[in-house]
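Recall that a protein's primary structure is simply its ordered list of amino acids. Everything else, from secondary elements to tertiary packing, is in principle encoded there. The following example makes that idea concrete.
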Amino acid sequence: MNVDLIFKIAAVGILVAVLNLLLTRSGREEQALLTTLAGLVVVLMMVLQEISNLFELVKRLFGL
C-alpha cells in the first residue's frame, strides 16, 4: 500500500478540521458542515480510486 495515500488523507483531514473549527467559531455552522462533507467526499473518491486499482490488479493477476 502506498504511504502517500495515508499522508494525503491525513492532510485533508487536518485541513478540514482547521476549517471546521474556524467556521464554527465564527458562527457559520452550516458552512462548517458542508466543508466537512466535502472533505469526506474527497477522501472517499481517493479511496474508491485505490479500490478500483486493486480490482483491476486482481483481474489481471487471475486473467479474468
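The first helix runs from residue 3 to 25. The chain has a mean pLDDT of 93.
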